[in-house]
């Protein structure tokens, strides 16, 4: 089994065509100001830009601040920037004809499900997905999932 790890979460990437830890300083250099998602996973049918937020990790810094930033929307510009910069880097590095899904995994048990849907809408507007002058969408889909929903959609961590 091939795995990647972010904090205390381990993801099975055995079925992936390729995968990389994208937020690696070896790839970008220590002086890069680009924002980066945690992983890029290539499957047969597309790419997943995976950003992991795990305030439930026992060593997480200030989970209450994360919760507050999530509720107020302050974290939306940050993750939208991560997606845009990763998209730019990826498009400049290689021709990506496959669809791209931006997946934000929030591993926070106490996060209310009702907060997630409006945040997905905010994130879609912040990216944005489409513009009438673009020939294609920036990414093909965008979703924020709690850990249980992530496991249901993509399999066990």
Please give a handful of descriptors for the protein shown.
alpha/beta, globular, 7 strands, two-stranded antiparallel sheet
Tell me what you see in this structure:
- This protein is α/β, with parallel strands linked by helices.
- The chain has one domain: 3-Layer(aba) Sandwich (Restriction Endonuclease), CATH 3.40.91.
- It is about 35% helix and about 25% strand.
- It has 5 helices and 7 strands, in the order βββαββααβαβα.
- Strands 3-4-5-6-7 form a 5-stranded mixed beta sheet.
- Helix 3 (about 75-95) crosses helix 4.
- The protein is globular and about 40 Å long.
- It starts with a strand and ends with a helix.
- About 25% of the residues are buried.
- The model has no long low-confidence stretch (mean pLDDT about 90).
């Amino acid at each position: 089994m091939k795995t990647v790890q972010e904090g205390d979460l381990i993801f099975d990437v055995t079925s992936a065509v390729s995968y990389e830890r994208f937020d690696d300083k070896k790839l970008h250099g220590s002086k890069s100001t680009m924002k980066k998602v945690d992983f890029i996973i290539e499957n047969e049918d597309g790419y997943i830009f995976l950003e992991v937020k795990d305030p439930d990790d026992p060593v997480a810094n200030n989970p209450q601040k994360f919760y507050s930033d999530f509720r107020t929307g302050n974290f939306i510009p940050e993750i939208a920037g991560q997606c845009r910069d990763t998209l730019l880097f990826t498009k400049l590095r290689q021709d990506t004809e496959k669809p791209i899904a931006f997946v934000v995994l929030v591993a926070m048990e106490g996060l209310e499900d009702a907060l997630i849907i409006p945040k997905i809408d905010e994130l879609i507007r912040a990216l944005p997905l489409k513009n009438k002058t673009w020939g294609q969408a920036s990414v093909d889909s965008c979703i924020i999932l709690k850990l249980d929903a992530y496991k249901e959609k993509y399999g066990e961590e």
